[in-house]
Design a protein that fits this description.
Length: 116
């Protein structure tokens, strides 16, 4: 049996832009992708704290150090600039592995900078 377990989370990211005319995805600052142990093209779940929307998309690389969190394509309709979101990825694990696994969680503050 395999369990779907939280692998990574970017907590309290602030949406910096929404681009309806892009093919789709979420653009994330590459520093944040690395810190959260996520990968470009990885499937993520996004939760909007402002309006309760929940949806899935995939990651594309944003400029390193920019703090960019931009929803693209249809997902742009689910957010507004300034909304606070949570971005999560999951992994399949055996029950034994899941018992000891610890997800990578980063909490963001002003300017989408990682809180220490």
């Amino acid at each position: 049996m395999w369990l779907e377990i939280l692998k990574s989370k970017i907590h309290r990211a602030r949406v910096t832009d929404a681009n309806l005319n892009y093919e789709g995805s979420i653009t994330i600052d590459e520093d944040l992708i690395d810190a959260a142990h996520m990968l470009v093209h990885e499937k993520v779940a996004v939760v909007n704290n402002n309006n309760g929307e929940r949806f899935e998309t995939y990651i594309i690389r944003g400029e390193r150090g920019s703090g960019i969190i931009c929803l693209n394509g249809a997902a742009a309709r689910k957010v507004q600039k300034g909304d606070v979101i949570i971005i999560m990825s999951y992994a399949l694990m055996s029950p034994e592995e899941a018992k000891t696994f610890r997800p990578a969680v980063i909490n963001l503050g002003e300017g989408n900078r990682i809180k220490k």
